[in-house]
Amino acid sequence: MSNQLEDYRASLLSFAYEQELIRQKLDTLVSEKEIENYYNAYPGNFELKNNIIKLRYVKLPLKAPNPDKVKTWLKQGDNNKLEQYCRLYAVNYLLHDDDWLMMEDVLKEIPLGDYSSEQFSRNNRLLEIKDKDYLYLVNISGFMVKETKAPLSFAKENIRNIILNKRKIRLIQQMQEEAYREALDNKDAEVYGK
User: Fold this and answer.
1) 3-state class of 64 per DSSP?
2) Is the pTM of this model over 0.90?
3) Nearest to 115 by CA among 189, 84, 125
């Protein structure tokens, strides 16, 4: 039992040492070009599992003042006026459509259930939806259906993690090979069967 504990302790120390070396030596900068090259080299790896959408929206109480101005600002992309208004009156809002969002997450906030994917892809426009408590003003700027190739901007963070993980694996292999060669050079290890 004490040998097992000692082996386990040595294993933990070795792992901690390896992780610290990785932290110190791993190049974590991934260029946009590397990401783009990976995206283009493996297009089949980026099929969407769910519908995604780009939008800007404002959720207002039904009695909020000047909803027509909000519609105009949403259409024109006047985020300064829109943000000032939203801080005062909106229950929730998203004014920048830089990122793709999972459709299922959007549906938790905005009742878009009556609109089909065909309508989204055909009608990138302003939607006005009312329920018993709120007015939702939604400006859709992009929509992609599942089982199509994800846009690069949506896949970027995943690709960055893949590239870093591959670098980490190569670094670990390199460190193990160096440790092995050093042990052979110092006669701390022997190779049998030659």
Assistant:
1) coil
2) no
3) 125
